[in-house]
Structures
1.
Amino acid sequence: MPSGSPTSGVGRVIAGRYLLLRRLGGGGMGHVWLAHDQRLACEVALKEIVFHDPAEPGQEREARVARARAEARHAAGLRGHPHVVTVHDVLEHEGLPWIVMEYVAGAVDLRELVARGGPLAPAECARIGLAVLDALTAGHERGVMHRDVKPANILLAPDRAGSPYGRVLLTDYGISVQPDTGETRYTMASALVGTAGYLAPERVTGGPPTPAADLFSLGCTLYHGVEGRGPFARESPLASITAVVTEEPRPPVRAGALEPVLRGLLTKDPELRTTARAAEAELARIVMPQSEAYARTQTDLGSPSPWEVPARPAAGGETRGSATGARRRPRPHALRAVLAGGLGLVLALGGAWYALADRTHGGGDGTAAPYGETVGLAEPLKEGDCVLADWPGGTRFAGLPRLALDPSCGDEAPDGQVMAFVEAASSEEAREQGPARCEERTREVRGRLADVRGLAVVPTPEGFEAAGRRTACLVLGAHGPVYGPLGDRRRFGTAFADTATMQRRDCLDVRSRREARLVPCGGRYDEQVLGFTRLGEDVTLAEARTESDAACAREVPPRDYGFDPSVHEAGSWTGEGAWKSGTHVVVCTVRRQNGGTMEGTE
């Protein structure tokens, strides 16, 4: 067994709670173990700090321990992101830190997958790249640079739809840093932080960590995935590092449509390197090429709903608590679509952006239908408009829907709402960039809801001026109506018509088992939404109202969100809409055990 901390080993119990079952792997920071959480009766992954040399200088030992704490802090800041391995806790055992993480069953890292089965298809690499790019972007928006993007840190695992590698996760924030916060950089004095052959040239020469440097590493990683080896792989780490700075990457031979993306990401000058937004658009075009009819589908970079099921006719619903008599609290779930490529791979989790542009009509004099005859709107959409969507054949997100306005934003059970607009200088720019920019503009609200997708309504060339030179960014229910306003367009004090509009971290004033109202979290409230879960297809709505509390306590335990289990308990809300659409989504909340009110400080 490789040398590790004195207390490592199968059968040991860490912090009186975690039983080590077997070693999963290891790296420069430490060993990763599969462990059994004896308190919650579930499996987790534990990362321990490893000191290979017992005589390692005290300063470097302290730096290694501090880096472990930084890893936990940075990864916890991205908690809930569908493409980042979740960190649950960091604890100390016998003077050393251990990081408690999500155990991803059946996962294989990209390096191992390529070694096992050979290089991947360009479309599959593009799908993986989109997911990793989404995770990196989420970190960059928080000021966190990963600094060690490489094939071994990308996990591929089965998704709930059965695709063996449908779930894509970025792991190991062990050397990440927030450069703009004054945070100490825990860099080992004797080593360059990062992995030879994947470091950006500006990092090798002493430059600061930046988003552009992470993008270079992503380019190296995708190159490895499609070519079977890194672009700067040499006979030794030193030779690889030298090649990064002084040599151009080996010309790819298998990359196909991915080659321009790789070339842009591997540009040595960070000022000229492809941006995240441009890379996202290019990768999306590889995964979902533009059709001849200009109905371009672009993957939603977030994770689609884990309870994705075949679409069924939508219908309205009423928010209700469970039949246990406990108050139910709604909660939105962060959904971001994991994209699947071609070559026999299914769309992983199925989220998608639809760019709608119909060129079958004439006009061009400013009076043409802004989005084409298929979409059917005579006037341009306005921000906050609620819409009804009539899909061809009745199947949601299949083809181009005909849209109509719902002025009441509730009376007719709207399918979605216009959440933003993005402007363009030309209709061609709108078609090329509108979907990706809409994805960015609506990412936050989609991440807080349980079962939605994005819809980019792109003006046609003839209707470009009539549309005000803008693409409308909509958020629609993935399987049914949303029953009311979304995001910040909801008013405090308004009763929820259905659980479909409940969002993560919503605070609820519970009037009865059938009525909850949205209230500010700064004051007093009865429950707060934590997340979502899904009940089985054979569970009826009546049964759900008695089973949902237990399901939420099991799948979305309040303790995981920092709530004291001796004071708080899990609650839930069920809605008719989720059963009529077939999704069986339950909103999971937290409340006080004694029924008392909660306050903003909680």
Note: The first helix runs from residue 58 to 77.
2.
Amino acid sequence: MNNYIFREYDDDRIIIRNLYGSTQKFDRLTLDKFHLLMLDEGEMTVDVNRRIFNLKSQSTLHLHPGDKIKYLQVKKEVKGYHLIFSTEFQNEIRTSRKSPINLQLKKQYPYQEFNDADYELLIGSIRRLLRYIEDETHTYRSIVIKNVVHNLLLDISDRRRKDHGNHMEQATHKDVILERFKSLITGHCNEHHNVSWYSDVMMITPDYLSKITRESLGKSARTMITERIISNSKFMMQQSNMSLKEISSRLNFPDQSSFGRFFKSFTGVSPKEFRNSLNQPSTV
């Protein structure tokens, strides 16, 4: 399996893997990046967030950080691509004029099928992307790569809107703010813990942001940020060998003690106790 990697600022911004063969299988995984599966040929089944998607030839599946994959199983020998985008990269290419109806459509319809002509357009973008990832001498390589990915995602979004847009209600101004807030939390909660940072980005007051989240979800903006930080910290403890000190630093706490107090105040156990519980045998 060949990997194509675009690195920037010492981070892997994009990883592209060739899907080939009949042995790919993943089981019980919580995603921490954006993923795009593009299936040229074959069939595979993915159970994500308790929804089952049966991918066919010339189809795509767009997944997000926090999505929970119960299993991914190849049913028929496949060819295609698996693209992985860091949250930083996704936020950089995201348009500031994100339509509220597109946000709803993307969440409700992550799977999309294409005809021959439209899918060939997507494959053309992949070919260009691979070319520029490999050509490290190109003066404007980073800009071109971001534009190619942006156009690729817009083409998928266009197909989604044409297929499903008439079935969605027009979102309100509050819907826009709520979806934007959720998106910002996904990409930035590890670095920014204060509600004021998010409200400043959206040019509203912290009180107004919390009013919207309480009315829509029954919880404050602060609670939503905290829940995501706790979820991310649990993921790091479950999925990696990072020390608690490294995790606290990754989550932008001043020290391990501060992270420990934060974690215990919302979970009732310390990070060490939580990590130790992962290794305990289950009892009936």
Note: Residues 196 and 228 are 16 Å apart (CA to CA).
